[in-house]
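Anyone else keep sequences and structure tokens together like this?

Example one:
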Amino acid sequence: MPYALDEALASALVALDPRAVRHAADPVRDAVQRLLLEEHARRGVPDATGALSFRALTQGALLQAEFDLSTHAHHEGWSVGALVVDVKGMIHVNARHGFPVGDTFLRAVVASLQAQGPGAPVVRLQGDDFALLLVPSTGLRITDVAEDSVRARLAQDVRASLPEGAEVPGFTLARLALTIEQPTHWQVLGPLVWGELMRAYTLAERGQAPGLQERRLPLGGFVPERDAS
């Protein structure tokens, strides 16, 4: 069923992202599709890899239920564990084997993470950078996650997605144990968690933080007492 859009509404849609739709055959249709994709991402609709968009974490309600169910039970703060996995040299996989193979490979990475963390959401932080969130309701602990075991399982699970004889890329791993003290609302959690995930990955990628990274973020707004000494 066709729907009519007046010129003002059509122009407003295109103006939301003029550079992205500049060369589109149907700019208005393209603008509407982009809006739908972004809203689906915020609402936690998995993308082509099977992972959730970072927008579900930073702009959506991914952590709302976790906050409502657990925050009042944890007097020491709201805690979450995370395993960040980045594919090394993904650009070479696409260059050697083509983007369809690369897409299949990323789906295998996500499926492996989902299998290794049953019930835990997998969030796509960047193109080939994913985070397995061990939220409180899963009962999983990041301290029980061994990086060598994760790497071995990933290599085993993704091998079938590549052509026979192809080299399996390596992975950069970061483990994070994060506690947010006195969060006032579930909406503050997502952006803070995303920022800490990116920080943990960056430090691991640079070789500056081997092993488990532990972070506590106080949100109470209290001014520390001055040290009398």
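And example two:
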Amino acid sequence: MEIFNFPKEWKVDKIVPKEIIYRVADADEKLKRIFVENVERIRLQYILNYKNTNIESYIDSKERYEEINFLKVELKEKGKENTVSKLLHQLIPKGTVVIVGFKNEILISLSKKEITENTFKVEELQNSLWINSDDEYLKELVYKNFNSTNLKLFYESIIEKIKIYNLSKTLKIDSNIDTRNIEKLEALNKEIEELKALRKKETQLNKIAEIQARLMKKMKEKKDFA
């Protein structure tokens, strides 16, 4: 399933043996079993760098975007996709996009990393919800829709698109979201979910009514974005 419509010159399409993952991760039997039981195969699909894309690298004291790797993970079954994608991000000291596929669905996983010359750590993970292969939103993920000023902005453009997709599905609003409103909507969604959980736990009728009133106010704010 082609998603980003990258030029063929960017394609690598090489199988990554799972044994390499075990060795680099110093995997124990539990982790090996997760890969054996859940992962069919892993492919390095694309490598983007200045040489083949003409998109400038970005390097500062905490971030390095000299290359972006796109990995395709084909699953045998759902359930451990977050574990698998997180491990791959923790192993690769570069900007990485993990595309997890199962039947006619995909999940796209990205992570912001603090990268210096000698060390790196995952700062933030961003996974999409499962996306069906015929979802119209996939048209938004064509690479020409991303910011190509440099590789950092290119990568962050994909993260923004995934955040917008998740918010539109979770909040049931249109996906035509202004990027300036992403943080506001994420906070609103978090408040709504917290209030729902609080309402479910509460037993006193007067407090339930109070929580419900707060929840309805937040739901109205959500509706204003629709």
